[in-house]
Structure formats: C-alpha cells, structure tokens
C-alpha cells in the first residue's frame, strides 16, 4: 500500500522562527491534505492541495505530485502553532503520516 | 454553523465490555468516517458510512461495527474491548459528493476511550 513519511518527527523552535515540514508519499494519489492537531486533540484541515501552491496567512503549502512530496511552510511561528502536523493522502481512503510534533517556545 | 460533534468526550471501560460512540456530522454533510488514533500515532481509518451503509473499511476486526442513521448521524460500536483499543476515536464528516470531488474532512474533537 501507499506509504506516507513525514519529517522531521519533532521540531522545537523559538517564537518568530520559520519552519518547513515535509511529506513524502510512495505512489500517485488523488489528493493530499495537511492537518493541524492541537494539544487537546482537535484536528483542523489546513490545506487540500493535490498539486501546486496555496497560502493562508502565515501558512503555505506546496505539493509536487510528479515527485511525490509536499511541503508545509510556517512563517513567524507563534506559540499557538504548537501541536502535531499531519499530512494525509487519499488513495481509496485517507492514509496518514506519523506527523511532525512542533513545539514553539515563547 | 455547528461542526462535527462527538459524545462522550471521555470514557473508561474494562476489558470485555462494549462501548458505543456517537457522532453528529457538520450540517449539510452526508458522509461520516471513523478513525482510531493511538497515542503518538496518526489516525487509522476504521470505516466510512454513506447512505446508511458501510462503504469502505480499514484493517479493523469485526468487533468494530457502525451504523448511520437517516439524519446522517453515526455510531461506532466496539465489542469485547481489549487494552489495545484505548485510543482517541475521531469522527469526520465530508460534504456531499455531488458538490465537489474534493474529500475535505471536518473532524470532531474525538472521544477518548481508556480500557482498563
């Protein structure tokens, strides 16, 4: 089946720093989504991005489907950005990566 | 506009017991998926319901069963609970398929099950 790998597994940054999270997938997929799970467990959809680039405020994402990877950029990090970031790809069902745990220190 | 609501938020059961978790989808959504998320891991797909039928199923045993009602709400039932069933159970709803080809999910806050 399709494998989804995320890197780095953990990331600790100071407030105001920028970060790049990566998601690699092993096969062609119909779409890709990025999620943020806050420390209380709530999952929020950040981007639906099967290809190309999208931006939403301080967050942006780029998917290069032909090379089977996606990147999530977070600029000027805030403590509220802390949590786990997941990418999930859709084959016949959503297949999730293990996540990147991001901690933003004040 | 209410999002996805799940109940209960937390519950504790003992091995061998049965549990029922409930989910009300976001208004206008007709498809519901259930996920199990063990501590420190990504969500694992359990199954998806559409038009009151199970349409897709992940790699979970028959102890996991579900139901969807005419109002699109859904239940997840787990029988003969094992210690390994302890997890956060997430429900997600999807907008009507005719509206968009994109399967953008809206998640509830989850039900945290502890099996002792």
Structural description of this entry:
The complex is a heterodimer of chains A (106) and B (116). Chain A is globular. Chain A has strands at residues 4-7, 10-14, 19-25, 31-37, 43-48, 52-56, 59-64, 69-74, 83-90, 94-96, 100-105. Chain A is mostly beta strands and 106 residues long. With 116 residues, chain B is mainly beta. In chain B, a hairpin with a 6-residue loop joins strand 4 (31-37) and strand 5. At the A-B interface, strand 4, strand 5, strand 9 and strand 10 of A face strand 5, strand 9 and strand 10 of B.
Low-confidence stretches of chain A: none
Main sheet overview of chain B: 7 strands, mixed
Number of helices of chain A: 0
Radius of gyration of chain A: 13 Å
The count of β-strands of chain B is 11
Q: Which percent range describes the beta-strand content of chain A?
A: over 45%
Terminal residue distance of chain A: 41 Å
Q: Label the structural class of chain B.
A: mainly beta
Q: Total number of helical segments of chain B?
A: 0
Biggest interface and residues each: A-B, 21 and 22 residues
Looking at the structure, what is the overall shape of chain A? globular
Which features does this protein show?
heterodimer, A: 106 residues, mainly beta, six-stranded mixed beta sheet, five-stranded antiparallel beta sheet, 11 strands, B: 116 residues, seven-stranded mixed beta sheet, four-stranded antiparallel beta sheet, 0% helix, 50% strand
List the helices and strands and how they pair.
The complex is a heterodimer of chains A (106) and B (116).
Chain A: E1 4-7, E2 10-14, E3 19-25, E4 31-37, E5 43-48, E6 52-56, E7 59-64, E8 69-74, E9 83-90, E10 94-96, E11 100-105
Parallel strand pairs in A: 2-11
Antiparallel strand pairs in A: 1-3, 3-8, 4-5, 4-9, 6-7, 7-8, 9-10, 9-11
Chain B: E1 5-7, E2 10-13, E3 19-24, E4 31-37, E5 44-50, E6 53-57, E7 64-68, E8 74-78, E9 87-94, E10 105-107, E11 111-115
Parallel strand pairs in B: 2-11
Antiparallel strand pairs in B: 1-3, 3-8, 4-5, 4-9, 5-6, 7-8, 9-10, 9-11
